[in-house]
Design goal:
It is found in: Cell membrane. Keywords: Cell membrane, Membrane, Transmembrane, Transmembrane helix. Pfam families: MMPL. The protein is of the alpha+beta class and 741 residues long. The chain has 26 helices and nine strands. The strands form two sheets. Strands 5, 6, 7, 8 and 9 form a five-stranded antiparallel sheet that branches. The longest helix has 35 residues. It is elongated.
């Protein structure tokens, strides 16, 4: 790998214009094609094999419009000045309903002036609209169009708010402000790190080209595979972060070699031969971690995993081809346009002397450093025991938003359970003539008897007479953990020959949580095992590979602790923009607890494990290179930390800035990702890479690089540390570590 990457880097440096123009054309063509021919999106959050999915499938079989995939839209009406049944208001509502009936795809409009359609104080009403033949991926736009059609009611002084009938997967997270903020913050960090504008712009340019290429590929793939709406934002978040990081690592190595007097072409070749290998393996760990989501049993999550992996592949490719080309074209001008008063990293080892001093300090006190780091990390991870998982309903949305206003009106007028009705679909043992059949009556009676069920609507029979559908309203809000228990209790109903299935948003999220709990150990095990195996191939050191995997799990504990403290305990939920319920007390405002979606921890694990392994690979590569030169383990740790401390810190600051910017999004799920990613990267780059990893490496000594003879014989020599290209033969022969030590 060292020789291959060295030749590739050298060729790109010599043919810089060809490589640069090729990448610009490719990125422009891919991105332009995806924009000119936007592919359809499919945010189907179904989970094959679950009871909610079976209920959803049965709903399509002969129950009529609104059940066969067309969808249902609800409009909340609120009269602040008096009852809705007052003549003038009632006529306005009826005019609005007449207008709604003329809208495309509308097959039925249910009046609010019916049992269950109006609140007890007669001031809140509910118009239910059944649709047929519309695009389910455009339900948000359809809802807005229908809401606009209800303007006659607004003209009469009524408030009309569309209820949010979407699932978390339906929500489109638009890119824009946060990405711009992240790029600006990254540029500032790079300017402070390098001290020159030219050097600072190289990683930004390379990352933008890689993100554009990756998004173009993802957009075109949407024509052949189901592509969720969140694919673009996930690819942008991760692709931007790793793209800048990888280019930053290569650029730091190149400038250090230039400062040592190495010619430009030779410096680029050595940089790609050594640091390029670390980039390839670091990217490989991220891709492995994301690809492991294929085992989660959640198609939407699996797609997000491998789609995000495309952006990582693009980042690796631009790092080992486009970055060397830019370095070759710029030559010594890479240090041009120095910023006054900023020394930056001039490229020498002196720039990292502070980190080298920290490494030496840790080497003299390994046990105290180890114990102190473990205590601090344990304290950060301890709140994770209080992590509260559960559905996240619109009651946690931004105060003043339509979705939250509709949620509050629904809860006030009809009860919190109306925001998450259960769709009960039962398969009958034989055909029945109508919904008044005794077996249907028995089913309705059993559902009503379930503890926590507040209301059961009249049953509806399908055209075959073999399935019956009824809506059950729980007493609790969708985010209340008791709602999930109601789902399980309804499913547990036992009638001879009757198979009871429960669908709807609450049931789907309950099944998602159960599937995540079931598959999480498998996903974690595969990610840890494959990542450790990749490190074993990279460094031929079993203990280092195992230790790296354990360290990454430690950083995850700190991330989940921060999530629990912020959201589950609620100490920081207000700081990240979560709004407590109306009329909350002062204490409730400070400790506003917010549940975390069940699939968020698993996805965070995959992303964070891969990103944390990046820094581990960079640090281990530098330590290994130093160790191969002189064989002094403690000195190698100090030198490795000194040469990578600045670049790892800069890379981490960039990542943290990008992820913190996403906390500003109004969507609660994005906020949880922003908090978890930012905290984990910050902890990983400081406490773990600055103290815990060096301390353990000093204590392990020569065991760090020990490899059994039998394993040494069967492992391919990938030489990721690049010593065969960078060191003279005499030094390599002095390598103190051999198989069997």
């Amino acid at each position: 790998m060292t020789r291959l990457l060295g030749r590739l880097g050298g060729w790109c440096a010599r043919h810089g214009w060809i490589v640069l123009i090729t990448w610009v054309i490719a990125a422009g063509a891919l991105m332009g094609s995806s924009l000119a021919f936007p592919s359809p999106t499919n945010s189907d959050a179904s989970i094959p094999g679950t009871d909610a999915q079976r209920a959803h499938d049965l709903m399509k079989e002969g129950f009529g419009p609104g059940y066969a995939g067309g969808g249902t839209v609800q409009l909340l009406l609120y009269s602040a000045d008096g009852p809705l049944i007052e003549d003038a208001r009632k006529r306005a509502v009826e005019r609005a309903m007449d207008e709604l009936r003329t809208m495309p795809h509308v097959t039925k409009v249910e009046t609010p002036f019916r049992a269950g359609g109006i609140s007890s104080n007669l001031q809140i009403g509910l118009i239910t609209i059944r649709l047929e033949g519309n695009d389910s991926d455009k339900i948000a736009q359809t809802t807005q169009d229908l809401s606009k059609a209800a303007d006659p009611a607004r003209e009469a002084g009524l408030e009309v708010v569309p209820a949010d009938s979407s699932t978390p997967a339906d929500k489109e997270i638009k890119t824009g402000p946060s990405e711009i903020i992240g790029i600006v913050c990254a540029l500032l960090v790079l300017v402070f790190a390098f001290g020159t504008l030219v050097a600072a712009t190289v990683p930004i340019f390379a990352a933008l080209i890689s993100v554009a290429s990756g998004l173009g590929v993802i957009g075109l793939l949407g024509w052949v595979v189901d592509m969720p709406k969140q694919a673009g934002i996930m690819a942008t978040m991760i692709g931007l972060g790793v793209g800048i990081d990888y280019a930053l690592f290569l650029l730091s190595r190149h400038r250090r070699l230039l400062a040592e007097g190495v010619p430009v072409a030779e410096s680029v070749r050595r940089t790609v031969a050594s640091s390029g290998g670390a980039v390839v393996f670091a990217g490989g760990t991220v891709i492995i971690a994301l690809s492991a989501l294929l085992l989660a049993g959640f198609p939407l999550l699996a797609t997000l995993g491998w789609v995000t992996g495309i952006s990582v592949v693009a980042a690796v490719l631009t790092s080992v081809t486009l970055v060397p080309a830019l370095l070759g074209l710029l030559g010594h001008r890479i240090n041009s346009l120095k910023v006054p008063l900023l020394r930056g990293a001039g490229g020498s080892h002196a720039a990292g002397s502070g980190w080298a001093g920290l490494g030496a300090w840790v080497a003299r006190r390994p046990w105290r450093t180890l114990i102190g780091s473990v205590v601090v990390l344990g304290a950060l991870a301890a709140p994770a025991l209080a992590l509260q998982l559960g559905p996240l309903d619109e009651g946690y949305g931004t105060r003043g938003s339509e979705s939250r206003r509709a949620y509050e009106l629904m809860a006030t007028g009809f009860g919190p359970g109306f925001n998450g009705p259960l769709i009960v679909v039962a398969e009958l043992p034989a055909k029945v003539p109508d919904a008044d059949a005794p077996i249907v009556d028995d089913l309705v009676r059993e559902v009503k008897a379930v503890d926590g069920v507040k209301y059961v609507a009249d049953p509806k029979l399908n055209t075959s007479g073999r399935s019956v559908l009824l809506q059950a309203i729980p007493e609790y809000a969708p985010s209340d953990e008791r709602s999930a228990q109601v789902v399980r209790d309804v499913r547990a109903i036992s009638l001879p020959g009757v198979e009871v299935h429960v669908g709807g948003k609450v049931a789907g999220l309950t099944d998602a949580g159960d599937r995540m709990n079931e598959r999480t150990p498998l996903v974690i095990g595969v990610v840890v095992l494959l990542s450790a195996l990749l490190l074993l191939l990279a460094f031929r050191a079993p203990i280092v590979a195992i230790k790296a995997a354990v360290m990454n799990l430690v950083s995850l504990g700190a991330a989940f602790g921060a999530l629990a403290m912020t959201f589950s305990i609620g100490l920081g939920s207000g700081l990240v923009g979560m709004d407590p319920p109306v009329n909350s007390s002062y204490v409730q405002t400070i400790f506003f607890s917010v549940p975390i979606e069940s699939y968020v921890p698993l996805m965070l694990f995959a992303v964070l494990f891969g990103l944390s392994m990046d820094y581990e690979v960079f640090l281990l590569t530098a330590v290994r290179q130093s160790y191969l030169r002189h064989g002094d383990n403690a000195r190698a740790v100090a030198e490795g930390l000194g040469s990578t401390g600045r670049v790892i810190t800069s890379a981490a600051l960039i990542m943290v800035a990008v992820f913190v910017a996403f906390i500003a999004y109004p969507d609660a799920m994005v906020k949880t990702f922003g908090v978890g990613l930012a905290v984990a990267i910050a902890v990983d780059a400081t406490i773990i890479r600055g103290f815990l990893v060096p301390a353990t490496m000093v204590l392990l000594g020569r065991l760090n690089w020990w490899c059994p003879r039998w394993l040494d014989r069967i492992l391919p020599n990938l030489s990721v540390e690049g010593h065969e290209e960078d060191e003279p033969p005499a030094v390599r022969r002095e390598e103190p570590v051999t198989a069997g030590v």
